[in-house]
Design brief:
The protein has 270 residues and is α/β, with parallel strands linked by helices. The protein has a domain of 186 residues: Luciferase-like domain (TIM Barrel). 35% of the residues lie in helices and 18% in strands. It has a 9-stranded parallel beta sheet, with helices on one face. Strands 6-7 form a two-stranded antiparallel ribbon. β6 and β7 form a beta hairpin. α6 packs parallel to α7. The radius of gyration is 18 Å and the shape is globular. The relative contact order is 0.18.
């Protein structure tokens, strides 16, 4: 089981509606840092996954506004569906952002799904197994590009004799967390080979299963993060005891900046 003396706390929010305003994102990030929070993470969507027509912001530009408004908190998309991202573009975005933020990026990755037609509307990969293969291959290509390697890869992801410089501030690489709806099996085992996991489940028994799977792959959970979605008033101590290291305080489409700022102002949960 993973153990931690202090759980870290982050704001986790969609870039939908009024929260699509990059100025509002910067204000929220600044307030979170001043109030002692540890991170700000944002959704990465190109179309709406909830009913209705929504204004939606591009995550890297919104995160750049947050980075320039802060000095300490960790920042990142949670999660980016790598199969609908061009890998060399993602490599450039992540490295540039890591340098802009002076090494504060945590990159959330996942295979995504077609909710809201985010894949099918643009002719991208719809098959779940193909997306999982693209996630595996894309992550390997991405980390090799970060390392400055010359990459030759032909499969679900193609990179023909490509090298990318400069590299990120963080070494040996930018931390990668994987989002998953599973608590055991291959998706969690994939995450265990990197730096963290963000399961959709947030009950203690599920988090304990995630922690057990991670420990079986790595030998221990030392240096590995398990993030859970949280609401104020929830039993975070039990989740922490089960292995959670980050509480992602969840906001939804329809929340406005003032809702998030009021929650931040109430302080980091003890």
């Amino acid at each position: 089981m993973c153990t931690l003396t202090r759980m870290r706390h982050a704001i986790f929010m969609p870039l939908f509606g009024a929260l699509a305003d990059p100025h509002a994102v910067a204000d929220i990030a600044r307030s979170a840092e001043e109030s002692g929070w540890d991170g700000l993470f944002v959704w990465d969507h190109v179309l709406s996954i909830v009913p209705g027509e929504w204004e939606i912001a591009e995550p890297w530009i919104a995160l750049a506004a947050a980075a320039l408004a802060t000095d300490r908190i960790r920042l990142g998309p949670m999660v980016t569906p790598l199969p609908r991202r061009d890998v060399i573009t993602l490599a450039r975005e992540t490295v540039t952002f890591d340098r802009l933020s002076r090494g504060r990026l945590i990159l959330g990755l996942g295979s995504g799904d077609d909710t809201g037609r985010e894949f099918s509307a643009f002719g991208d990969i719809r098959d779940a197994r193909q997306r999982a293969q693209a996630l595996d291959e894309g992550t390997r290509v991405l980390t090799a590009l970060w390392a400055g390697d010359t990459v030759n890869h032909c499969g679900a992801i193609v990179a023909d004799n490509v090298r990318a410089i400069p590299g990120p501030v963080q070494q040996p690489r930018i931390p990668i967390w994987f989002g998953t709806g599973r608590t055991t099996g291959r998706p969690v085992e994939r995450a265990a080979r990197y730096d963290g996991v963000f399961p959709l489940a947030n009950d203690p028994a599920s988090i304990a299963r995630v922690a057990e799977t991670v420990a079986a792959v790595r030998g221990s959970c030392e240096g590995f993060d398990i993030a859970v979605m949280a609401r104020r008033g929830g039993d975070l101590d039990t989740l922490r005891d089960a292995g959670a290291t980050w509480a992602m305080h969840d906001f939804r489409p329809g929340h406005r900046p003032e809702h998030v700022l009021r929650s931040i102002a109430r302080g980091v949960p003890a």
